Amino acid sequence: MSDETQRPSQPRGPVDASLIPRYCGPATFARLPRLDEVDSAAVAVLGIPFDSGVSYRPGARFGPGHIRASSKLLRPYNPALDVSPFAVHQVADAGDLAVNPFDIQEALGTVEAEIARLRSAGSKVLTLGGDHTLALPILRAVSADRGPVAVLHFDAHLDTWDTYFGAPYTHGTPFRRASEEGLIDLERSMHIGIRGPLYGEQDLTADGVLGFQVVRSDDYENEGLQTVIDRMRRRLAGPDGAGGPVYVSVDIDVLDPAHAPGTGTPEAGGMTSRELLNTIRALVGTDVVGADVVEVAPPYDHAELTGVAAAHVAYELLSVLAVNAR
Ligand SMILES: N=C(N)NCCCC(=O)O
Ligand SMILES: [Zn+2]
Ligand SMILES: [Zn+2]
């Protein structure tokens, strides 16, 4: 009797690195199966190679491939959360979405439709970007069936600016548009890791009106990790403590350029990857409805530093989803 007939409901996991060397074979995230190789997936990892919304260095269109290539060393068991994220339920790589690099509005429509399609097939979606513009169409799709969601946004930047060159859909503006469109819960959303020069003081006041609280990068040093985690969990619980759906958006430039040089708009004074991974782990027990890891720009990376950091961030997000599903 084959394994499959004995255990028909067993999720198909990653390729075994003790049988097939890690550097062999097609690069799916964490060497997971492709979505078309499994019946269905509780979580789909979707690449979106799009960087037409960037204000500075381009290159995030190569992010999905780079994160996958940097994810080959991930192992199946996560001791930090005591979970095997690919054994609890089926996780699969949905490949790359082909989006129009010359027409941003059309690209946003393609992204929204694909996220909606995967979600209606029963998959939560972890998106590998791509630039931060992508958060807007993803939030449109998620809030279409979950209503306004809390946005937990890890980034050096607010990304609530209004326009660049008059353009409303850019990587610096997704969360202003999302707030204006009523996609986010104004009482439970938060940025973590904010730092660096702004256009003016009004950037921060406008951001508060749009529904965000701010944890600054320096707060990790001044208050400590546990205090930051407590603030995050209190904010996500909301004023009545009841909680609700949370969308997690991770711009890899939240990390210090020493930890993640491969990104388009780097800012000094950032978080360590250890701080970021530990903060994400503290999301166990919150209703994470989707997530992205964006702004990985491989042309500026060295030794896969940024790719490995992004792969681990994605792995911790998948681990949280697995613990929550258990
Ligand atoms: N979302 C990212 N990574 N960066 C936004 C920077 C916008 C600016 O150039 O002011
Ligand atoms: Zn950023
Ligand atoms: Zn961003």
Largest β-sheet summary: 8 strands, parallel
Number of strands: 8
Bound ligands, each once: 4-carbamimidamidobutanoic acid, zinc ion
For the residues shown, what is the average pLDDT? 96
* Order of H and E elements: HEHEHEHEHEHEHHEHEH
Strand content: 15-25%
Helix content: 25-40%
* Rounded Rg: 19 Å
Distance between the termini: 28 Å
Q: pLDDT under 50 segments (min length 5)?
A: 1-5
Structural class: alpha/beta
Tell the overall outline: globular
How many helices? The count is: 10
Q: Tell me the strand order in the biggest sheet.
A: 2-1-3-8-7-4-5-6
Pfam families: Arginase
InterPro entries: Agmatinase-rel, Ureohydrolase, Ureohydrolase_dom_sf, Ureohydrolase_Mn_BS
Protein name: Agmatinase
Keywords: Hydrolase, Metal-binding
Features:
Agmatinase-rel, eight-stranded parallel beta sheet, Ureohydrolase_Mn_BS, hydrolase, alpha/beta, binds zinc ion, metal-binding, disordered N terminus, 326 residues, Ureohydrolase_dom_sf, binds 4-carbamimidamidobutanoic acid, 10 helices
Q: What would your notes on this structure say?
A:
The chain is an alpha/beta fold and 326 residues long. 32% of the residues lie in helices and 15% in strands. The chain is built from ten helices and eight strands. The chain has helices at 3-6, 63-69, 104-120, 135-146, 174-180, 202-209, 217-222, 225-237, 273-281, 305-325; strands spanning 43-48, 91-96, 124-129, 150-154, 189-194, 212-216, 245-251, 287-294. The protein has an eight-stranded parallel beta sheet with strand order 2-1-3-8-7-4-5-6, with helices on both faces. Helix 9 links the parallel strand 7 and strand 8. The two termini are 28 Å apart. This is Agmatinase. InterPro entries: Agmatinase-rel (IPR005925), Ureohydrolase (IPR006035), Ureohydrolase_dom_sf (IPR023696), Ureohydrolase_Mn_BS (IPR020855). Belongs to the arginase family. Agmatinase subfamily. It comes from Tsukamurella pseudospumae.
